Amino acid sequence: MLIINYSNFKLESGTDEAGRGCLAGPVTAAAVILPENFSLPLLNDSKQLSEKIRENLRPIIEEQAISFSYTHLEPALIDKINILNASIQAMQESILKLTPTPEFIIVDGNRFKPLNNIPYSCIVKGDSKYMSIAAASVLAKTYRDDYMNKIHEEFPMYNWEKNKGYPTKEHREAIAKYGITKYHRLSFRLLPEQLKLDF
């Protein structure tokens, strides 16, 4: 059973990101402030939910949240500042878009950087413990999936509609065959050693 609040503050924001381990596409974060009486029985860590359930939950979260936002950070920035810093920046930018400003932040994972003197706590596996982080994980995942479905139409040979930019065998074989696109992260190891560009 997910817990509604970690702190004693009414305006507590949960934040999470999606797409950290991908070879292509943005890292996407979301931040959500939920009301105290919020209840959504199906809500859980987005990785535990089917695509259909995530899509059904998103409008309910958005309708009932006090505030929500999401942010995409592009591969060029990921390559420039590294994926950890990009993940944190995406979460921070999402939090800064919230109105009202949260009084406390709970972050999925174990790394964050101070933001405007707002107190925060990092919670490992927070998306399976706290509602606002779970809600943020659903928004981050679904908005990122929408983005990958859109760029799939531009480069269908990588099948991003299905793999969402993750390092599947099919995705790596497509990189070996067709090369890279503007959506690939150049700082990531796009091909394992045995998949040199020779077939």
TrEMBL record:
GO terms for cellular component: cytoplasm; ribonuclease H2 complex. PROSITE patterns: RNASE_H_2. This is Ribonuclease HII. Its main location: cytoplasm. Residues 10-199 form the RNase H type-2 domain. It comes from Flavobacterium piscinae. Keywords: Cytoplasm, Endonuclease, Hydrolase, Manganese, Metal-binding, Nuclease. Manganese or magnesium. Binds 1 divalent metal ion per monomer in the absence of substrate. May bind a second metal ion after substrate binding.
